[in-house]
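Hi R.,

Here's the chain you asked about this morning:
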Amino acid sequence: MPQRSPAEIRGSIENNRMELAVAVERLRGEVAHLTDWRGHIERHRTELTIGAAAVGLVLGARMMRRRRRRS
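And here is the predicted structure, written out as tokens:
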């Protein structure tokens, strides 16, 4: 491998810094999107409503069965 000049090394380091800054900023955006629970709720409102209704029905049915067994 040929020797690089100090200027080439500095240029390479600066280029790597800029690429790293872009990658970190992109990663921050992805993390913000993935951890945005309000956005997830907004995008999946119908599914969450159906799931909550199903859980309510299951819990209600269990409570009714327990009452019948105690009587």
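One quick note: The radius of gyration is 28 Å.

Cheers,
M.
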